[in-house]
Design goal:
mainly alpha
């Protein structure tokens, strides 16, 4: 297994693939390029959970909730934790160093609770409206947003940690090529999964990347750069936006 893929699976899932022989910035950059592919696998599993739930007669909101819960379990809830910590840090109103300390503390404050609850509620009800196929678009796009967050020019907020390892490791052309692949896949998923206009898939992907980038820019301005928590927040926000767009009739 390529070392970048091994690192991507280890960082983004609970699958025990072992540590890469060398975890340096080149390997980290390749892992971030593999991230959407890992997201596709997660999305397929989540879609399978929802389909199985529907097959035994569960109502769509319950089936969607089980699928979202399965994804949280498969990712150790790390992205939701990152969303909570980032919301608390941004909402603290403190200078960057103190805001980073709030994020690192491990406690979840009112901003964090609100952000996680809102994200889970929106994801669940949007998925119930859109259908299982939507996860095949939303979950890879969430990880694609992380790929873009690791482009040159986006600094790390701390000199160590995951943010410092991956910041600036992905070249723009590579991220653009991945975006084209994800957008094409989204078009096919929308057409085959729901019989809806194929353009809706790329629109959802691009909308999610724009919103995620706005969050990223706010974090860079407010915190000084990215951290592992910020990357987790980017995942959840982009995933939520895709599901909300695909649920629109």
């Amino acid at each position: 297994m390529p070392e970048g893929l091994r690192l991507a699976i280890g960082l983004l899932t609970v699958v025990p693939v072992g540590r890469p022989r060398a975890v340096g910035r080149p390997t980290a950059g390749r892992a971030m390029l593999w991230a959407p592919g890992v997201g596709l696998l997660l999305g397929l599993v989540g879609a399978g959970v929802m389909r199985a739930s529907l097959a035994v007669g569960h109502p769509r909101p319950l089936a969607a909730a089980l699928a979202i819960g399965a994804l949280a379990a498969l990712t150790r809830g790390l992205h939701l934790d990152g969303l909570a910590d980032t919301a608390d840090g941004l909402g603290s109103g403190r200078p960057s160093a103190e805001a980073l300390a709030v994020m690192r503390s491990g406690d979840v404050g009112p901003f964090g609770v609100t952000a996680v609850v809102l994200a889970l509620v929106c994801q669940t009800f949007a998925l119930a409206a859109a259908g299982p196929w939507a996860l095949v678009v939303a979950v890879p796009t969430g990880r694609l947003a992380v790929t873009w967050a690791c482009r040159p020019g986006v600094p790390a907020a701390r000199p160590n940690g995951l943010g410092a390892l991956v910041a600036g490791t992905v070249r723009g052309p590579a991220a653009a090529a991945l975006t084209l692949l994800v957008a094409l896949g989204a078009a096919g998923a929308v057409w085959l999964g729901a019989g809806r206009p194929p353009w809706l898939g790329p629109v959802a992907v691009l909308a999610a990347l724009v919103v995620a980038d706005l969050l990223l820019r706010r974090c860079v301005s407010r915190l000084g750069g990215v951290t592992g928590d910020v990357l987790g927040a980017v995942v959840e926000v982009a995933t939520t936006v895709v599901l909300v767009v695909l649920a629109t009739r």
